[in-house]
Amino acid sequence: MSEHHFLSLLTGSFSTPSDDNPTVAMVEAAYRHHGINARYINCDVKKDNLADAIRGAKAMEWIGFNCSMPHKVAVIDHLDGLAESAAIIGAVNCVVIADGKLTGHNTDGQGFLTSLQSVTDPKDKRITLLGAGGAARAIAVELALAGATHIGIVNRDQSRGESLAKLISEKTKAKADFIPWTSGYRVPETTDVLVNATSIGLGDAEALPDIDTGSLRKGMIVADVIFNPPRTHLLRKAEEQGAVTLDGLGMLVNQGRVGIKLWTGKDVEASVMHATLATLFGVA
Ligand code: NDP
What we know:
alpha/beta; Rossmann fold; six-stranded mixed beta sheet; 36% helix; binds NADPH dihydro-nicotinamide-adenine-dinucleotide phosphate; shikimate 3-dehydrogenase (NADP+) activity; Shikimate dehydrogenase (NADP(+)); amino-acid biosynthesis; Shikimate_DH-bd_N
């Protein structure tokens, strides 16, 4: 028997645009660190090419792939089954290929949950969620499934906010309310965890969600999904108020770890992935 192994396990990402997606760097760092003979290939797949890309992945016996914009919903038509949270969220960002069958998962919410669990258990907690887009939807469903009692969904667009509140109330045991976003929104005192799941702060260290930062308080957990730059204005303000903060790098790293576990069955260390991203974003 040869001691050499020239055939790697194949994983990757299908999205467009794809050039700014740092997942490949952190996943390959984990593969290298743990000696996993696998590759992660960042692929620019246009909308009309998704079916062919998936057929190709199956033909080449990939073990799985991530999918991002604009494929998170469209990919579902090509799958054989969905994990519970992905079915409720209605979007998939991680596909496992095993025995020729494709199963869709949503690791965004699970990544957030794992990151949050490093500081608290969401069970019986009250959450205030800023945003009702894809990331917010994934986070709300995962926190509800993990036992959060109430989720207040603060959003600018009423129909998106209401539809997420309805989804949580109907499909999980948690209660959820839509709260129209008014300028200088005061975060309720009863909030245990505030999450910014909007895109405010992406690529802009000074952008701040339009809330009364004086309503953030000591002991509250304030989390941001924004990973670039990781130290957002919101997190800096929250620290000034004595809150515990969680940055978006933790969510990104943990959704990568969940994906690797689903594909390879291996638990990989967060530290090597975190260090890779921190170096990339100049915060090492
Ligand atoms: P969507 O476009 O689906 O949703 C964007 C959300 O932000 C909506 O709720 C939108 O409100 C809100 N929003 C945007 N601008 C404003 C504003 N000026 N004032 C108030 N609300 C605003 O995006 P996603 O949910 O897919 O992504 C959101 C962010 O999460 C992105 O920056 C992305 O990079 C990040 N992300 C991070 C991950 C991680 O691992 N750390 C994983 C996935 C995403 P409205 O409905 O009113 O338009």
